[in-house]
Automatic annotation (TrEMBL), chains A, B:
GO MF entries: DNA binding
PROSITE patterns referenced in this protein's UniProt entry, alphabetically: HTH_LACI_1, HTH_LACI_2
Boundaries of every HTH lacI-type domain copy: 31-85
Classification via SUPFAM superfamilies: lambda repressor-like DNA-binding domains, Periplasmic binding protein-like I
PANTHER family per record: LACI-RELATED TRANSCRIPTIONAL REPRESSOR, TRANSCRIPTIONAL REGULATOR
Stretches the record annotates as Disordered: 1-23
Organism of provenance: Variovorax beijingensis
Name under which the protein is recorded: LacI family DNA-binding transcriptional regulator
Entry keywords, A to Z: DNA-binding, Transcription, Transcription regulation
InterPro entries in UniProt: HTH_LacI, LacI/GalR-like_sensor, Lambda_DNA-bd_dom_sf, Peripla_BP_I
Length: 360, 360
DNA sequence: ATGAAAGCGCTAACAT
DNA sequence: ATGTTAGCGCTTTCAT
């Protein structure tokens, strides 16, 4: 149809500026909800409902939408959805390292539990100083996750303030601190240290040692261990306790070296509590290399009950934490909270157990 | 002021519908860019620029904005930013388990490298069957990450298609496959298997064994190992090779059990290649328990060069992969791509090395 | 049960 | 260098 039925106005001097100069379309993303809606012959809202709350939609529409989605390979853009609904379905976790005994299991469990509830995990690693950690917290807050899980991370005062100000649900998961930021799923380092000291003293050990990482988390256990050894209820006679510190992360090698240091500083040490099974394996290995018998000459207790603890020789006595449960509870608390439910019990002590094996 | 200066119209039948009935305001989020702009006395764009591209802004505005941000504790909403800019600054990674020898290090390195470039990592775990894996991929695609890193995950044909259709940059990081989906940073399982077989045969071993997980990744190495042993260049005389499979994940325990099976099925086995150092530790432990000397009676090679490999006794000969480099390259490729740069070499073989220690 | 309109809080594109 | 405008692709709210 080339007939100029509606003639365009021929240039009259300078053309009047059109009121809405059509600007270049922004780069087209992929296919959108609207296109699916057109294809299905329904409104955008019906597509949204068919995808998110299918029970609110008639069978007819459901079928049409499903067909359109199928044929286009449409995957809804959750960034847009998050912005509109103010729920990101993203949860952030910050741990010192995913390699740690408790954290690895907790992160795995978090991922699994969140996935089952249609949420995803964003993972951050702290442990490079306060400044980086605060920057990391801001990066996380900027994404408006539905929750933040802190594993063994003690935020700075400033970080803590921002966390609170953000209004994002927070679950701390390491120590049973007195004044949690928000929710808390943890275990008591003091209780563990006391229990292990008592366990060893009851078995006749008198010269105790503690080997742990050079960070606050291990330090808490160390001081509680020493205190329990020297002043605890099990104390009947002369007991000594000494602490050796290794540079994090804990390795078999640092465990071996630390035993050397321990024997130099406190000869005759007859029992050692390590802040990780990996360190304990190093201690056992080094003891063997030095002709010390485990447990006759020296008893060794680890932490974490890693998979190898039961199967090395001698098998390791260790402290077991149910880290999977920690992850599950943290995930549930956050998801419940973001669904507007009141979280019944937001402060849980998951406890611990001492698994007694050959090394003691 | 109770004087009715402007009398409200008394109900005149049904009141005429006002053209724009003001609806209830949506739940207010926190503080927004616009409020910061008002506080600073500048436009929203100036705040945006001051935060994202400070070099494009005058010192005066920069100062005003900084002050306003400081006083409000404003943290920009990246969900909105992502939607507007079509860049999420999120990268997704999928691994069978974060506990695996290569993956743990790769994930750590990914997190660190991405954080340095102002990106975050979203982590998924596959390994629960094709159906869950495809669902996971869809959940990831829905978030429109700037890239997806696949670690030891071989997507189904359907998953592969969706990945390609999504247009999201993908880095595969496990095997040097022939036809990568997109980018590739890996190493050759075949080359490793051949090298280890040759290594063992050259040292006089004749009855070889392979112990690996019951999944495709290990299976590739297993068959290449057997093939190299039976048909490889190093073959001078009678050589046998046998494969034992353990249920994933690999543990010290399954390594111990597998050695038992191996000796039952192929008595006189004098060298074993394990698909993980953890399995190798189990084999060494079980050998000791059975009175077999390592390496005199049986040589053991692990995989991963985990931190304990050098420090257990006997120390483990193992295959070392530079997983940190894999993570770095993957992160760089993706970030570069999302910045519109052409990625120079998008197919990298990071190689491997055999670290020879006491166990051989 | 379905649809229309109005944003969610930013940034790209354009204009000055 | 700074501001204005119009979306990004969804979901909430309200009306039918």
């Amino acid at each position: 149809m080339s007939a100029p039925s509606n003639k365009q106005p021929v240039a009259a001097g300078r053309s009047a500026p059109s009121p809405l100069p059509p600007r270049r379309a922004r780069v087209a993303g992929g296919i959108t909800l609207l296109e699916v809606a057109r294809l299905a012959g329904v409104s955008a809202m019906s597509v949204s409902r068919a995808l998110n709350t299918p029970e609110q939609v008639s069978a007819a529409i459901l079928a049409k939408v499903r067909a359109a989605v199928e044929s286009t390979g449409y995957v809804a853009n959750r960034v847009a959805g998050s912005l509109a609904s103010q729920r990101s379905r993203l949860v952030a976790a910050v741990v010192p390292s995913i390699a740690g005994p408790v954290f690895q299991e907790m992160v795995q469990s978090l991922i699994a539990e969140l996935a089952a509830r249609d949420h995803q995990l964003m993972l951050g690693q702290s442990g490079y100083g306060t400044q980086e950690e605060d920057a990391l917290l801001d990066a996380i807050i900027g994404r408006r996750p539905d929750g933040i899980v802190l594993g063994g991370v003690v935020p700075s005062a400033a970080g803590r303030r921002r966390l609170v100000a953000s209004g994002i649900p927070v679950v701390e998961t390491w120590d049973m601190v007195q004044d949690p930021i928000d929710m808390l799923v943890g275990f008591s380092h003091e209780a563990i240290a006391t229990a292990v000291a008592t366990f060893l003293i009851e078995r006749g050990r008198r010269r105790l040692g503690f080997i742990g990482g050079n960070h606050e988390r291990a330090a808490r256990r160390a001081s509680a261990f020493v205190h329990s050894a020297l002043h605890g209820p099990a104390r009947e006679r002369e007991i000594s306790a000494h602490v050796e510190t290794v540079v994090a992360p804990a390795t078999v090698r640092s465990g071996r070296q630390a035993l050397g240091e321990m024997l130099r500083h406190q000869p005759g040490t007859d029992a050692i509590f390590c802040s990780s099974d990996v360190l304990a394996l190093g201690v056992v290995t080094e003891a063997a290399a030095r002709g010390l018998r485990v447990p006759q000459d020296i008893a060794v207790v680890g932490f974490g009950d890693l998979d190898f603890a039961a199967d090395v020789s001698p098998s390791l006595t260790t402290v077991r934490i149910d880290s999977t449960r920690i992850g599950q509870l943290a995930a549930r608390f956050i998801v419940s909270r973001s669904e507007g439910l009141d979280v019944e019990e937001a402060k849980v002590d998951v406890g611990f157990s001492i698994v007694s094996r050959e090394s003691t």
